[in-house]
Amino acid sequence: MKRGTYHRLCYLISAVFASLAPLTSHEKLQSRCVSTRGTPRLALTTQLATTLEENGGEPLIVQPGAEVPDVGKFSHLISTTIDFEAYDTSCDALIPVVKPQWVNASLSKRKLVNPRQYSPDPRLFMNDVVVTCGDIPGGDKDAIIGGVIAKGGLYSPRVSQMVTHLVDLAADSDKAQIVQLKKLKVKIVLPHWFDDCLKLGRRIDERPYLLPDPEILREGPETPIRLHQNKDLVGASTTDPADLPTPHNTDQRSVFQGKTIMLSPDLGIGSHLLESIQSVLEQGGAQMTTKVDSADMLICRYREGFAYRTASRLNIDVGNLAWLYRLMTFNTYTSPLRRLLHYPVARTGVPGFEGLKISLSNYVGEARLYLENLIAASGAECTKTLKQENTHLITAHGNSEKCTAAKEWGLEVVNHLWLEDSYAKWKLQPASDPRYSHFPLRTNLGEVAGQTRLDRAVLEQVFFASENTAPRSPARPAQGKNQVVVAVQPPEKKRKLEEGASKATQGTPQSNGKVGRPAQTPARSRVMSEGKENETPSSTSSRRSKDAATARLHEYAPDLALYEKERKRVGGVIYGGRRKSDEDRVQEKKKRVSIEPEEESDDEPAVETKRQKKSRPPIAMHLLITGYQKWVGKGNEKKEDADKRALRDLGIMVVQDARRCTHVAAPSILRTTKFVNALAYGSTIVSTEFITACLQADELLDPSDFPLEDKEAEEKYNFRLDSVTANAKKNKNKMLQGYRIYCVEDIRGGFEAFKSIVEANGGECLLFRGRLTLANNSRREESDEESESEDDHTARRELFLLSSASSKHSRVWPRFRQAALDSKKTPQIVRVDWLLDMAMCQSTRTTDGYELTEDMIADMEE
Question: pLDDT band at residue 61, thresholds of 50, 70 and 90?
């Protein structure tokens, strides 16, 4: 590389040159953590800084524990981990964070290489992989290369010293022979390894996939799977640690040196333990405070209260006792967001987890304890044994008796990623996602438990959303912990930084304010220096700098508001923009326009600009449409879209969910899922002529002038349409409350359709696969029996099976009857008409005339 390649670029370089996996001995801790000047780790940092300086860079070294200068002065951060305070600030400013290998790669290629391939972000789990492919099909090769590069790895067309993995189907291929001949440290793996890693989104152990004798091809399914302890979960498997840890006695600077820490009263710990914790912290150089705005760390138990919200909005580190104890134990900083149980818990669980009963299988040691505590923190119940009343089984692999039983009982069988993602996103994730039901053949997934991080954006949205409308402020300036920092600055900043270099080495660097980036600096690293939204002034920046940044934010407010509005649309910001005819398109070249009243929010004020869209009337009705013939058929999609936009301009919002509709339009009385479900919510029923008339008149007409009339269907189904709405409002979606209705597995119309109808009316619908699930409602049934009517009580004693009069379905009838009788219930096997007739008239009916018997099957066959 020519001298000067790094000229006018600025680097912030961490000297933590080892992984932050839990350490098991005092000696390992000394060898893995940054120490004082003169240690081998500092020598590596100094060597790296010298390399940068020789190639035109201008390094700055910051001693461990010292404050890191404003990251806006730097174009790159170099670190082997993202666990340092400046990381979030750097991401907000679009400043790349790279590993030290990035420097060597740039030197070897004589140009600055793509920083993404050298990111220390654990989400790019292939970032240490350099793959080359042997004799494998072209399609598989392209897929593997694309997946590895997308997850932070690199591809090499030839076998070289840089290659870490050779993917091949046999150990006697040309490239495999080169690896063996030259004795290269290259792992020869089957393509299955990459496939499993990419499906899981985690990097699993390669050993079961190694050629020439891969375990996944050699061992049978009954062979026990090798277990590995998950060291990454040491100290992170519980939110409530029992004992105060004993800190390692090292010569290095304490992680708490110079920090101000607040212990929240909601910790609920005794005075003796509180004094012990304060003593350890003060011995490490920390100061205690009771004022959250002056703290650097807040230790609390729950995600609530003034202190929690204030600290979170100020980007102060918020963690629980488990996180604090880990810092004490290993004297190495990690973000409290890195591990799920290092962050305060919520008093209420994840929405949707209430009532779930989850059992664990094949997880051992710290991984099992971690998942048990995570289930409790999520608001579900963790059961030691698996029973029919369970709803989920979380298993580390698919080979166990529990897995077999769970599948027979119709339970959800998932891996721990489902639980972790649900907790991190604070939303129940669909168990049908293939990622949650994938189990590599010879891998125990307990090895990769605990790698999911919390999402700060989700936490902010749910637990400490700002009370004003100002844009989200960037993270506070970082303070280095257990790291040595090297920086290279543009020439116009060099003199000022040199003046503060000596102070920086003592831990008291001064910020030099905001300076414009030079022309040669990559555009992505200029964001911060221009004083834009994500600028982060240092802790010693003047008030004048903050005011200037605020003023600039107001200048950009219209564009920011428009972007945020467009980003929240269904489908996101799409490539190439939106069509002129698209609904909710942001119109350009309009002088006087405003945002729709119904789409404004309290914390997002409307901003009038030339690019805003034409105003629309407020929504007068939410209309569910079914069976509209003008939209039925191939080729009518464009007309349907145009009509829906026209209806919206009249104040009619077309919806697909029966729970949201106020009116339902149909050409006649139908037995579609939409129509039947809408009846349960008491929606006003109109004819589809209402839609045609509104579109022709180009105005919102009175829906009462277009009632649905279908005397023939009313006589056929034995109910009057004008009484349905009144019945539904009286039922309040509880007509089938207490009813447990099963469906045969391949019922005509689909199980999901009948399930939605039953649930819309307050009942419970399950697939019948040979066993019944009864125990989960038994206590509620017993407690409610006294207050129930006789009809409700009878329904509680009966179990219903929806079936058809076919020989295929009749095979399960004896099993259903026996299972119901064993549970002291009365079995009722009925046609689907029984359910549909009740749902359409909104009143319960007996099973007389709907029951199915074996005689009916014989009659049909004859």
Answer: low
User: CA–CA distance from 172 to each of 135, 211, 428, 799, 805 (Å)?
Assistant: 10, 10, 47, 62, 60
Residue 290 lies in a domain: yes
What does the block give as tokens for 103? 């420097």
Residue 212 preceded by cis peptide, ω within 30:
yes
Torsion angle of the four alpha carbons 333, 334, 335, 339, in this order, in degrees rounded to the nearest 10? -150
H-run or E-run covering 357: strand 357-361
591: in domain:
no
The answer as to whether 73 is a domain residue is yes
Would you list the DSSP string of 44-113?
Answer: HHHHHHHHHHHTT----EE-TTSBPPPGGG-SEEE-S-S-STHHHHHHHTT--EE-THHHHHHHHHTSPP
Q: Which range among 28-42, 496-510, 580-594 shows the weakest confidence by mean pLDDT? A: 28-42
Q: Which CATH number goes with the domain that contains 780?
A: 3.40.50.10190
pLDDT at residue 724 greater than cutoff 60: yes
459-479: pLDDT as tens digits: 999 999 876 534 333 344 333
**Do both 202 and 135 map to the same domain?**
yes
Altogether, the residues listed in the chain come to a count of 862
Answer left, alpha or beta for residue 101, where phi above 0 means left and psi between -120 and 50 means alpha. alpha
Q: What does the pLDDT look like over 406-454, one tens digit per residue?
A: 988 989 999 999 999 999 999 999 999 999 999 998 999 999 999 999 9
| 3-state DSSP of 378-447 | HCCEEECCCCCCCCEEEECCCCCHHHHHHHHCCCEEECHHHHHHHHHHCCCCCCCCHHHHCCCCCCCHHH
Both tokens assigned to 822? 């064993």
End-to-end Cα spacing for the chain: 89
Q: How far apart are CA 500 and CA 509, in angstroms?
A: 6
Strands (E), 702-842: 740-743, 764-767, 798-803, 826-831
Question: Closest Cα to residue 387, out of 790, 778, 786, 820?
Answer: 778
